[in-house]
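Record format v2
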Amino acid sequence: MQPIVSLKNIWKSYGSKAVLKGIDLDIFPGQVIGYIGPNGAGKSTTVKILCGLISDYEGQVFINGKNIKDDIVGAKSMIGYVPELAELYDVLTPAEFLGFMANLYGLDEKIASDRITKMMIAFGLEANMHQRMDTFSKGMRQKVLITSGLLHNPGIIILDEPLSGLDANSVIIVKELISKLAQEGKTIFYCSHMMDVVEKVSDRIVLINNGVVLADGSFEALKLQQGDVSLEKMFSSLTATSGMDNAAEQIMSSFD
Amino acid sequence: MNIINRYLLKTVLSPRSLYEKWGIDTARLKAILSVKLVMDDRRPNTFRQVQQKKQDKPVKSATLATMAMSAVLGLLFLFAFRVGSTYTTHLTTYFSMYIFMLASTLIADFTSVLIDVRDNYIILPKPVNDRTVVVARLLHIIIHVSKLMLPMTLPCIVYLAIKTNLWGSAIFLLFIVLNTLFTIFLVNALYLIILRITTPQKFQSVISYFQIGFAILMYGGYQLAVQAIDEAALQGYDVSGIRYIWLAPSYWFAEAWQGLYALSLPPRSLVALLLSLITPFASIYIVIKYFAPSFNQKLSQVAASSPEDRSTQKAGKTIIPKATYSKTLAGITTGKGAERTGFLFTWKMTARSKDFLMKVYPSFGYIIVYLVILFFNSRTVSLQSLLTNPVQGKVVILSVIYFSSLMLVMAINQVPFSERFKAAWIYFVTPVKTPGLLISGALKAVMLKYYIPFAFIISVPAIYFFGVIIIPNILLGISNLLLICCIMGYINEKHLPFSVNQSIANKSGSFIRGIFMLIIPAITGLIHYVLYNFTIVVSIAAILSMTAAWLVIEAIKNTGWQKVKDFSE
């Protein structure tokens, strides 16, 4: 099977500091990739490259077999991106904002407004559709953002901490949504620090640290390699630097 | 969207086929532009960047308010027609003012309105090509500018229509458009240069300094112009006589207007016409063709001063701050605990908060410019006469000292405000017994930070010129000032440093306070003037005033929680 997303030896540095040091990844349709790593590991740089936000990297990125540098606009139209920070134009109403998003994706207006209404209702935001978002809570903004990433029914969905700020009920909705989308054959790239969620939703886990892939495989496969422990334990044994082993202990001892 | 926005949008989108030829996606162009215009209309507008925003309701028709203000400004521009006797001279002056005004407005607006860093997350990951984004940005700028500039130029259009004829005012409009394109290019180029020489992280603060500099320059220029008006000389002035006049683009436009208006194109006008037609379009073309791709890239870096960049600081190396000037001062002037904390916190925040810099530093600049111009311009005051004429010396010294109180008051009044006012929760969750200590610490920090250098600057030359005899007078002046500031701090509503939302700055009583701010130093200065020659009285007064200032600060220190404004969400 042809990978839908393929990263070939990606290098990227900011100034003299290399953030990505030769990332190789093949992602296949219908996979839910849990992309994890400590802060500064290079997760968001990878995501930015995939979304076409960063173009001065070395190596090649293929989406559906096509190098994204050849047709970045075409690549972007296949991706739905839900950024980590709740960045949106909050003087707009959700209806206006999502309508704008739909326009940028070149969606038919009728279809778009139909979808927007349905999705907003599903998220329980129908009463807020015509209110300016500057009064919205973090969770409400997150729902609007998730909607904006799914609106054009993309084949590849990149989620960066999509659950942040959501209440427990909404978390359930989004988790269910992820597995439904995967069943439909969508590819999901899920970046998160919440190991328990990643463990549950993803069928393949990619762990990076210092710009290199440290582990790659299903949770079951990783367990065979690393021993039968939780993902959280695996994560820390693979990425924690020596000084951090007994950090909690050190913190407690600093009271003495 | 209001009618003005709708109409402007339609106009800029009309050369559809041309855009398509450039590889621009017109549907998406329209989508981006209309959203941007709606947002503009809901944002407190940009004319008053440096002043305090007083907005508490959701903003609706910001556009109309701004347009009205521009029209008033445009009336003032008609002053240009008092300069010189030829239209070339009039219009060179007019266009120069116009370009300057536009450039300074744009520099401010570019960061806050026109370049929205959220675009990086919202628009750039979408299937829109770079060129469309850049053109959308440019057209947004053009619409934004038209909204400012059409009303601004309207008085002149009418004036020319009456004074010359319709043809004259029609070609004037054409040249205004060319001027505008040219200025947009200038500002764009400036941005690119700044992006090139600094890191994207520092970009915002460099732009702020530019804005401050511009505002001060504008004020200085205005003051000079007002002071320098010598009607007779102005009337006979002719720009064509200036040797390097060709270096001023405003001259090309003016000369070209003259040529077209008179329908005769001598070589001089023809060259000017060519230059003024080619330059704007060529520069806009350059912006789209060459700057566009790198511009977007650079801008995404401005936004991406993200964790990755910051984490480049090497782990394991802990930076230990050295004992600093501020710490030494804090050690001398404040008691341990909350007061010292307030002092050091305010000292740092006043240097780093962009908000504070933008509000306070321009007014410092205005006051200094005003003082400088006051002395350079008054023909009676010179260094010589200062020394020989004791009365004059007195007046100058005292007016400098007391006038500069405005600077200090400005800074003190700004301390409670911050865009990050919500971070003030720290005061409310920590067991601070008397919040007055934080306030007095902040007050001391501002007084020492902004007044000590200034006091030094005025006392050294004063002592040098007038001898040690002047020391008691300077001491009295300075301590009076500090006393005034302390009293202001005492009677104002009590706010903790950087804890109040800038946009809901209290309006009530600000007029009274403003008057108070001017009258009290003036009266004190007057009394001081009367006492000036009685050194002993002055010395005693200085001691009394210092004691009073100290007492007031003690009183501020004791401010309890019941008097401090609550945490505002």
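The longest strand of chain A covers residues 17-27.
Residues 52 and 73 of chain A are 9 Å apart (CA to CA).
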